[in-house]
Design goal:
By secondary structure, this protein is of the alpha/beta class. It has twelve helices and seven strands.
Length: 281
């Protein structure tokens, strides 16, 4: 629920790592700023891509939308439903029409209908949905369709408070809308200290205080467990920042190391829950 914490950067680079491990990865850009779409397009040497993520909020089947997936020669195992500012207008219009028409089709579960189909599972191993810091029609769709959520956060007080607010919203709506959604983990981002070869993460006193606050906040909704993935931390690195307009994992070795570390931790957590990841090499 806070901007600037690394949601899009994490989505793009974890997706790139999963693709490098052998997964066929479908990105869904549900943030109308369209940053994920721009990053993927720039990495693939493409211009701005037409907005088509709104098709996933309509009463469509996967077959209806599969031909709209943007694909890239440079990124052969990655597909994308793109967004830009028009998505804000489109999703508001779609929601208003749905609410006014009293349709039996529930717009909140449009994405679930598409992604949970056998046809989609035959084309893609992993779907990563990038959402903006607000509960919009598209964000609700993402939560209803997903098996897991990953929450990035800066370790400062405003960001920790935003994680607490988000957890409270989950608690209020989880049983009604997304009872099967699981928290895969909270990943600290833009941490100050992270020597390249340090196995054990080091945090400042302030960061450590906020780590504890975040852990307490998520446990109120998700129960006891180790949810803050300190080992998956994303440090503040000049090499990553200078490639912020691209998928840094693809173009920079340090970004590949950092996001690969985080990606491998997420893969292992999925395996521990019994998820099959036969695509990993």
């Amino acid at each position: 629920m806070k901007g600037g914490v690394g949601k899009t950067t994490l989505s793009a680079n974890i997706g790139a790592h999963l693709s490098a491990k052998g997964a066929r990865v479908l990105f869904v850009d549900f943030d109308y700023q369209g940053t994920l779409s721009l990053m993927v397009a720039s990495t693939a040497n493409r211009d701005r891509l037409p907005n088509n993520a709104y098709e996933l909020l309509q009463n469509n089947s996967y077959k209806d939308v599969s031909q709209s997936v943007h694909k890239f020669k440079k990124l052969p195992r990655i597909g994308l439903f793109a967004a830009h500012y028009l998505l804000f207008r489109d999703e508001m219009e779609l929601f208003a029409n749905w609410a006014a028409n009293n349709s039996s089709f529930d717009i909140r579960f449009a994405l679930q209908k598409i992604l949970h189909s056998r046809a989609c599972a035959e084309d893609w191993d992993v779907v990563i949905v990038d959402c903006g810091p607000r509960f919009t029609t598209s964000t609700i769709n993402a939560l209803c369709a997903s098996t897991h959520i990953v929450i990035p956060t800066i370790l400062d007080e405003p960001s920790a408070q935003a994680v607490g607010y988000l957890s409270k919203e989950f608690e209020d709506h989880k049983q009604e809308l997304f009872p099967d959604l699981n928290l895969l983990g909270v990943i600290p981002t833009l941490v100050a200290q992270d020597p390249p070869h340090a196995d054990i993460p080091t945090f400042s006193d302030l960061e450590q205080e906020q780590l504890e606050a975040v852990e307490e906040a998520v446990e109120k909704t998700w129960g006891k467990g180790k949810y803050v993935l300190e080992e998956a931390r994303i440090p503040k690195r000049a090499q990553i920042s200078k490639n912020a307009d691209k998928v840094a994992y693809v173009v920079d070795d340090e970004a590949k190391r950092v996001f690969g570390r985080a990606g491998d931790i997420l893969i292992e957590r999925l395996r521990n829950e019994g998820f099959r990841t036969s695509w990993t090499n």
